[in-house]
């Protein structure tokens, strides 16, 4: 909701930095007022409050009276907010070539994804203060570049497309597995990421990785209903009820993937979608084609190496060659992933597979202490308790 409000304001007034500040102040006021009752049209409410904040800012800065009156007179009642593709335009604006790639990513996640600075810092494995400075510098860079709220010409879109795809991927991931809070999933983020990615595929139909990313999102999101128990406790992939996976999303995702594979060297999103498709096509965990998944992860690691890819490949290696082989791959990942719970959680899983229950307990406990997600912590502490039974 906040990204759409920011998009409308930025398109209307062209002052990205001021608009972003106004929306943040409106969200703060909402956090104070909405507990006593959410308005009938929350987005129109945010739009009106943010617009008033802009008027106040311009008034305090002795801005031109005409612009102030124009904003003050705008009607943001229910139904008057345009349904333009503002989110996609805003993404391309935030990915302006005047900014470095890390700054583009950080700013877009903040402005379009609506993620907090802490959530973005967690995604990039850096301290929150560092990320806050990066976002601040990025906003200043947009202002200095004199960028306008409009889609760049087709000749410039290609250069920005990679960052746009990466941002959509990170927004989806934060929605699918929230890094903090009381819920494992943030459906508003996954839904918005899928929506905007569909727009991107329509705008750039020849970009195979855009279609690959959409396929990955659909195949991954198809598991949503099976990922938690009624009390919110996470359910591992191996234990999920596959009968409630969304078959329409699986069908669409596989069709999209089939339409792009073989039309060139596959990129990282196509490869990840292919891995998700192998899981989706298995009727049960026991029938999963782990050798194929391992082969795909091996290619993915060669195409787009990262500590997270190595971590995931370690699980596939363990499923094919045994937990000891998977544990060997975890050596050396501490520097990159030691601050997050993921490495310890995977280590605990592989140690449990090998029958080293005391060591698995220690790893699960360490992971539980590091995660900011309450459902993840509950699940991991449950694993600690189960290790105590051995």
Structural class: mainly alpha
Instruction: Output the radius of gyration.
Output: 23 Å
Give, in spatial order, the strands making up the sheet with the most strands.
1-2
Strand residues, percent: under 5%
Largest sheet: 2 strands, parallel
Terminal Cα separation, in Å?
Answer: 48 Å
Number of strands: 2
What share of residues is helical? 55-70%
Description:
- 68% of the residues lie in helices and 1% in strands.
- The chain is mostly helical.
- A two-stranded parallel sheet has the order 1-2.
- Helix 6 crosses helix 8 (128-145).
- The longest helix has 23 residues, at 154-176.
Quick description:
By secondary structure, the protein is mainly alpha-helical. It has helices spanning 2-13, 16-33, 42-60, 65-72, 86-94, 101-111, 117-124, 128-145, 154-176, 187-203, 208-221, 247-260, 268-281, 290-303, 307-321, 323-330, 334-337, 342-353, 357-370, 374-388, and strands at residues 180-181, 372-373. Helix 9 runs parallel beside helix 11 (208-221), helix 14 (290-303) packs antiparallel against helix 15 and helix 16 packs antiparallel against helix 18.
Outline the secondary-structure elements.
Blueprint: H1 2-13, H2 16-33, H3 42-60, H4 65-72, H5 86-94, H6 101-111, H7 117-124, H8 128-145, H9 154-176, E1 180-181, H10 187-203, H11 208-221, H12 247-260, H13 268-281, H14 290-303, H15 307-321, H16 323-330, H17 334-337, H18 342-353, H19 357-370, E2 372-373, H20 374-388
Parallel strand pairs: 1-2
Helix pairs in contact: 1-2, 1-3, 1-5, 2-3, 3-4, 6-8, 6-9, 7-8, 9-10, 9-11, 10-11, 11-12, 11-13, 12-13, 13-14, 14-15, 15-16, 16-18, 18-19, 19-20
């Amino acid at each position: 909701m906040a990204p759409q409000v920011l998009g409308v304001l930025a398109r209307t007034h062209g002052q990205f930095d001021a608009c972003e500040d106004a929306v943040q102040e409106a969200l703060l006021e909402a956090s104070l007022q909405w507990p006593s009752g959410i308005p009938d049209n929350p987005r129109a409410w945010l739009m009106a409050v943010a617009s008033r904040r802009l008027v106040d800012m311009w008034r305090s800065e002795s801005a031109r009276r005409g612009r102030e009156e124009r904003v003050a007179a705008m009607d943001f009642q229910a139904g008057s907010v345009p349904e333009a593709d503002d989110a996609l335009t805003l993404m391309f604006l935030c990915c302006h070539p005047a900014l470095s790639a890390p700054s583009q990513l950080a700013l877009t996640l903040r402005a379009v994804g609506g993620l907090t600075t802490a959530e973005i810092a967690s995604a990039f494995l850096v301290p929150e203060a560092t990320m806050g400075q990066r976002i601040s510098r990025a906003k200043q860079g947009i202002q200095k570049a004199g960028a306008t709220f409009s889609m760049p010409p087709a000749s410039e879109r290609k250069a920005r497309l990679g960052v746009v795809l990466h941002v959509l991927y990170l927004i989806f991931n934060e929605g699918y597995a929230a890094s903090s809070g009381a819920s494992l999933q943030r459906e508003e983020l996954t839904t918005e990421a899928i929506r905007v990615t569909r727009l991107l595929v329509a705008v750039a139909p020849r970009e195979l990785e855009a279609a690959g990313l959409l396929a990955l999102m659909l195949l991954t999101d198809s598991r949503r209903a099976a990922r938690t128990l009624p009390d919110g406790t996470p359910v591992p992939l191996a234990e999920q009820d596959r009968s409630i996976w969304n078959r329409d999303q699986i069908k669409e995702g596989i069709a999209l993937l089939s339409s792009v594979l073989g039309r060139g060297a596959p990129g990282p999103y196509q490869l990840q979608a292919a891995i998700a498709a192998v899981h989706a096509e298995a009727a049960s965990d026991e029938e999963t084609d782990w050798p194929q998944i391992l082969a795909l992860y091996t290619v993915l690691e060669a195409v787009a190496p990262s500590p997270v890819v190595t971590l995931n490949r370690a699980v596939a290696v363990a499923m094919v060659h045994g937990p000891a082989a998977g544990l060997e791959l975890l050596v050396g990942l501490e520097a990159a992933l030691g601050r997050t719970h993921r490495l310890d959680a995977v280590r605990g899983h592989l140690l449990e597979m090998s029958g080293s229950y005391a060591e698995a307990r220690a790893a699960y406990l360490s992971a539980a202490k590091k995660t900011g997600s309450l459902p993840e912590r509950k699940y991991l502490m449950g694993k600690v308790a189960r290790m105590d039974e051995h």
